[in-house]
Specification:
Number of helices: 4
Distance between the termini: 28 Å
Largest sheet: 6 strands, antiparallel
Strand content: 25-35%
Shape: globular
Structural class: alpha+beta
Length: about 180
């Protein structure tokens, strides 16, 4: 018996939500994720605290973009969409957002961005405390779940937006 279209879509959405939660658990520096139509792009948001100048934020965005392009070149992977944007939220809070097409985005890119930001701004990168008991097997499982999220997004176009937000140690996922 074939599953109905709505059942298959619901299962797809459920898998995407589960994998998105795994990504937020695996990479505590990711503040929010948004993906969905019309372009099927993946938006990954990081928060920075501190008194950064506009030039510093622009330089940070440029370095992230260069790092991602270098990784894509090393992996011989084409990038359909790649932008790094920054936005000042208030005097001491800024957001850096990486926008990528889900078709060519890899897990290693997301980890590279988090590690590069951690290296560049240190404690000014907002990160959830994470689970100190997270064992290596669990980390590997979550990394595989991130890979599955990206694969799942490419299997079927999302019908609506998916937004995942980290707040005070909790993960909230909204699906439209």
């Amino acid at each position: 018996m074939r599953k109905g279209r709505s059942t298959a879509a619901a299962e797809h959405q459920s898998r995407v939500i589960s994998y998105t939660i795994a990504m937020l658990l695996r990479i505590p520096e990711v503040a929010a994720i948004r993906c969905g139509p019309p372009e099927n792009h993946f938006r990954i948001r990081f928060l920075l605290t501190g008194d950064f100048t506009d030039d510093q934020l622009a330089g940070l965005a440029d370095r992230l973009r260069e790092s991602l392009l270098a990784l894509a070149e090393m992996q011989q992977r084409a990038t359909v969409a790649l932008t790094v944007e920054w936005q000042r939220e208030c005097d001491t809070l800024a957001a850096v957002e990486v926008v990528r097409d889900s078709a060519t985005l890899g897990v290693e890119e997301i980890i590279l961005v988090a590690e590069t930001l951690r290296e560049m701004v240190g404690p000014n990168l907002v990160a959830d405390g994470g689970d100190p008991w997270l064992v290596e097997e669990e980390t590997a499982f979550q990394q595989e779940a991130i890979f599955e999220l990206l694969r799942e997004l490419n299997r079927g176009r999302m019908q609506g937006d998916l937004v995942a937000i980290r707040e005070e140690g909790r993960v909230y996922v909204y699906s439209q």
